[in-house]
Design goal:
Radius of gyration: 19 Å
Distance between the termini: 9 Å
CATH architecture of one domain: 2-Layer Sandwich
Number of strands: 6
Strand content: 15-25%
Low-confidence stretches: none
Structural class: alpha/beta
Largest sheet: 6 strands, mixed
Mean pLDDT: 91
Helix content: 25-40%
């Protein structure tokens, strides 16, 4: 599929949800355009400056009123709140799991007092970064998300599951279990138990391959949060474009 066709279909799907949002009088872009650009940023999966060069060089005819590089990044962060509109409704069951994201090389740990990422283990290897937690429906849609530094235990993400436990049964591994604490409507599964939980691993592998999300370059918390919000919106939108099939690799830019 051609890049222009992918962008046009993305914009149409975004505008169907956000078309009623009014544009500020002094704004250059409509909300639908901003969210589409944020989704394209996550789909492209490169450093922000490289993405901006590509957007300005190849897609300026689609976004003729494109702001400057720094202005666009601030706008994307401000409008991230609208990405919640793309989160899916919970189904009878949901799967929760965490995903490690590297922010810097371990040798650079501690060089800056403003460093967001912390050292922790992910998939049995040390990283300096964060952990992303996604609550995923059986067909792979993102229901809710959160993030913590990589040194935090998965139990930190229990609130995400507890918030939805009245609406859906939560499936997870024992890393989310707290000793002595009740977890209603939550099933903790051992190895080779409820293998349908592997849907979340398929989701994580797709964002690794398609969007190179295993390592990103944001240093400020607000921009990091915005990137994850747009990533969640991107995945659900591409899943809808693929008619619910986990075949989003066809939309790589």
């Amino acid at each position: 599929m051609r890049t222009e066709e992918i962008i046009t279909r993305l914009f149409c799907m975004v505008d169907d949800k956000l078309g009623a949002v009014k544009k500020r009088k002094n704004a250059n872009l409509y909300t639908s355009e901003i969210i589409t650009i944020g989704i394209l940023f996550c789909l492209k999966g490169v450093h922000y400056r490289a993405f901006y060069r590509w957007l300005k060089g190849d897609c300026l005819d689609l976004f003729p009123k494109l702001p400057s590089l720094s202005r666009l990044l601030r706008v994307l962060q401000k409008y991230e709140v609208w990405t919640d509109e793309f989160l899916a409704e919970p189904q009878a069951e949901s799967v929760i799991d965490s995903y490690g994201i590297e922010l810097i090389h371990p040798v650079r740990e501690g060089r800056s007092e403003l460093q967001v990422g912390k050292k922790g283990k992910s998939n049995r290897r040390w990283i300096v970064g964060i952990k992303l937690c996604w609550l995923v429906s059986p067909n792979g849609q993102i229901v809710d998300w959160g993030w913590e530094t990589a040194n935090e235990h998965d139990q930190k993400f229990r609130d995400i599951g507890v918030k939805w436990s009245e609406h859906t049964k939560i499936l997870s591994d024992f890393g989310f279990k707290k000793r002595g604490e009740a977890a209603p409507n939550w099933q903790f599964c051992g190895h080779n138990e409820r293998n349908d939980r592997m849907i979340v691993e398929r989701v994580f592998s797709l964002i690794t391959v398609v969007s190179h999300f295993k390592k990103i370059f944001h240093r400020a918390e607000k921009y990091l949060t915005a990137r994850i919000g747009y990533m969640s919106a991107m995945f659900n939108t591409l899943l809808a474009m693929a008619d619910g099939k986990l075949a989003i690799a066809q939309f790589s830019l």
